[in-house]
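Entry:
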Amino acid sequence: MRFIGALPHAPGPTSYAMTNKRTEILAGVSTFLATMYIIVVNPAILSQAGLPFSGVLTATVLLSFLSSLMMGLYARNPLVVAPGMGLNAFFTFTAVKGMGISPEVALGAVFWAGVLFLVLSLLNVRSALVRLIPKPLRYAISAGIGLFISLIGFENAHFIVANPVTLVSAAHLTDPAVLTFVLGLLLTAVLLIRNVPGAIVLGIVVTTLAALPIGRWWGGEVPLVQWQGLIAAPDFSLLGRLDLVGALRWTLWPVIFAFVFTDLFDSISTFVGVAEAANLTDEQGEPLRLNRSLLTDAVATTLAGLLGTSPGTAYIESAVGIAQGGRTGLTAIVAGSLFLPFLFLSPLLSVIPGIATAPALVLVGAFMMKPILKIDWDRLDEALPAFLALVLIPFSYSITTGIVWGFLSWTIVRLFTGRVREIPAGLWLVDALCVLSLLS
């Protein structure tokens, strides 16, 4: 197993030659363990919009399975597709609670956003947008996603906590859960450095076992005692419950646009960032089978509205499996298939606490930092926009915010330094969408 950062730059076929079925299966398991939190987190958020928890859980599992399967079989890329974090928050707190629309209408808006995605994908507009991203911004986005993943890991472990004075601060090691996370982080790092097969999976398993006594001895989190039975029947009550006609009211077009814009740049930045970090690129440096991946993402969003959940998107946590050595669609197939049993075995999710998957997320962030070495930091016209994209992704807790300000600053720098000819015509359209997103 090699670190992402240690992979030689080579076209896709060379990367594929470095893998095998055993590695891909372990990578799929690792990716699933890093993304499985969405099975319970997504219903927890969308249930606040008035949707039944069990119905959203079923929709989440089905969407994650079907979309990841398509990503593996059709696009042949090692990326899990599932309901997107941030998109589910927009669905609940902006569309339903903020604008006062019904959850059924919001699901209809998700469906129509997916249809628009499909049109853009079939016309190759989305892939053209990817190719408009300047390479320094690509490198910065990759590293920014890495920092974002690490932040999520530290937050899940409660190692980084809110502080009313300093905004955030580090927790004390006297907390048994934090100490368990630190030990898991160090153990996983050592296993990776020693090239132990399945290092990330082993780290997650050992950290989970180490976390079991916490509640019994210190009154903290104990995964096993959270079980409420072993088998739970799936709830298909949200299947086809969307309001297609109501969602087409002209007053709701801003909602559809917001879904389109957010999912568009989240998916693009994920494809670009992960491909750049893992060398899953072609001879021109473009992500492999980009059109198929974008089409899969579009289908996932359309399917989300039909199933009863927020839009689906490619997950940045897929980098966990790529760090484990996953390079082909088999990784996505394995990860997606592992979602399916939780239609009936959802209580088993409580076995793996957040502190067990957090070390993997933190270490993946480290793997994804190497692309910033390709940025010419002596050229301020490239370095400053790249820096904004890099830091704003984790600082704003939004991939979209980082890429928006990266685009806008790239254009503004060239506009006011007499280098307008360096701005592609299509980038002006992207900038206009960025401005609209800031005003919406």
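The two ends are 45 Å apart (CA to CA).
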